[in-house]
Amino acid sequence: MEFTSYNGDSRNRIVRLNEDGSIDNTFNVGTGFNGGVTSIAIQPDGKILVVGGFTSYQGNTANRIIRLNADGSIDATFNTGSGFNITAMTVVLQPDNKILVGGFFTDYNGNTRNRIIRLNSNGSIDNSFNIGSGFDALGVLSIALQADGKILAGGGFTSYNTHTPNRIVRLFNCPFNVSISPTNVNDGMVGLPYDPVSFSQTGLTGTITWSISSGTLPPGLTLNSSTGVLSGTPTIAGNYNFTIQASNGSCSVTANYSITILPAAPRVQVDNTVLDFGEVPLMQSSIREITIKNVGALPLQITAIPATKEVFKYGFIGFETIAPGQSRKFSLYFTPTEAQTYNDIYTIISNAIGTPSTISVTGKGVVVNSITNYQPICEVYPNPTQDYLKVRFKQSSEFEVSVADVNGKICLKEKSYTPEKILDLRKLGKGIYFLQIFTNNESQRVKFVKM
């Protein structure tokens, strides 16, 4: 339209009115357009698409198409470049926010497009909308969308892309409700097989071909063009952004993804991060086992599994090495000194990357008389002793016997397969020690003195 005023107020070719017909002054158009406006479309977010014969808005170059914010200011995120070379007559917003424009133009931002075009929401050309040679010089005056997504175009034309429709034609359009899932993918690690991702799409029919339309996959990973499965073993660490496309030959859908590939390193996986030792007699020990798996790509070294309270200990000296993909069992001990409930946290100290893994534990110390039918699993004598300590077991079984000092350091560790075991203590200094005996899930702790 070519008006330059409304009700005596200057308004160059665009105005917004209140419900009562008065001017809405919150919509500030300034000097407005220098040429006619032929069509307007309002987006769900309130932004306004405007096409016509104009070449400027508020003194800013805008060749026949522009998007305004709800207050009338220019939306700078809508980049049309040099715009249209000739008048645009109609604009329609699709449900997927893509933009159909028809008119007399033959060029958009330096690209040949004869009288019809579809733009992405940022103003770039949607190249999946293939019009071939487009419409003839008599142009497109009106566009309408059907419920099934097909496009009706009307105008003065008598040809479209080698066909001869007289002034009306219906064009095939891709479905609006197409998508790719999942929306996010896992990160990976150099040298560690990537957990495969199976992409799927909804909305497209027929045989689907998968591809990377932009960006780069992490080296070592590949996308199967037939199945849409992403798999492989990463070889180079870094951050990778890429776009996956699913296409049936006529229509396509894309989705953007990002994967971070970490450098090769060991990683800890614990089978049980919460343990309950139950009720344990005072100065006796209860044992629980955990399994630690190396889910990384380099050998994992476990150097300690300390807790903060002295009643909770772990059962190895030095360090333990676990190869990638392998597991090891570790023993954790609870030896209460008071009749109370204890809560603590073990921390797995290792060469693994990231925050150390932890294990929450609880146990209750009780006096022996409060436990029904409690029976010690061995007798220990003499106590005090000098060079040797004899352990007599109440039943035949495989026992693990260890001697720890008052700081919890393991000084001696042996296994016994007979009902009686004699421990050689000659290398130990004088002092107080604790003898710990374990079999299956039973345990006993005995304090003794070496003289």
Task: Give a short account of the largest sheet.
Answer: 4 strands, mixed
Structural class: mainly beta
Helix content: under 10%
Q: In order across it, which strands form the biggest sheet?
A: 17-24-23-20
**Number of distinct beta strands:** 41
- Multimeric status of the protein: single chain
The shape is: elongated
What is the number of helices?
0
User: For the residues shown, what is the average pLDDT?
Assistant: 91
Give an account of the 3D structure.
The protein is mostly beta strands and 451 residues long. The protein has four domains: 1-173, no CATH class; 179-262, Immunoglobulin-like (Sandwich), CATH 2.60.40.10; 268-370, Immunoglobulin-like; 378-450, Sandwich (Immunoglobulin-like), CATH 2.60.40.3080. It has no helices and 41 strands. The chain has a four-stranded mixed beta sheet with strand order 17-24-23-20, with no helix packed on it. It has a four-stranded antiparallel beta sheet with strand order 25-27-31-29, with no helix packed on it. A four-stranded antiparallel beta sheet has the order 38-37-40-41, with no helix packed on it. The termini are far apart. The mean pLDDT is 91.
Brief descriptors of the model:
single chain, 451 residues, mainly beta, Immunoglobulin-like, four-stranded mixed β-sheet, four-stranded antiparallel β-sheet
Write the layout of secondary structure elements.
Layout: E1 5-6, E2 9-10, E3 37-42, E4 48-52, E5 56-57, E6 60-61, E7 65-68, E8 88-93, E9 99-103, E10 107-108, E11 111-112, E12 116-119, E13 140-145, E14 151-155, E15 168-171, E16 179-181, E17 188-189, E18 197-198, E19 200-202, E20 209-215, E21 221-223, E22 229-232, E23 238-247, E24 252-262, E25 268-270, E26 274-281, E27 286-294, E28 300-304, E29 312-314, E30 320-322, E31 327-334, E32 341-347, E33 349-350, E34 358-366, E35 378-381, E36 388-393, E37 399-405, E38 410-416, E39 420-424, E40 431-439, E41 442-450
Parallel strand pairs: 17-24, 26-34
Antiparallel strand pairs: 1-2, 3-4, 4-7, 5-6, 8-9, 9-12, 10-11, 13-14, 14-15, 16-19, 18-22, 20-23, 21-22, 23-24, 25-27, 27-31, 28-30, 28-33, 29-31, 32-34, 35-36, 36-39, 37-38, 37-40, 40-41
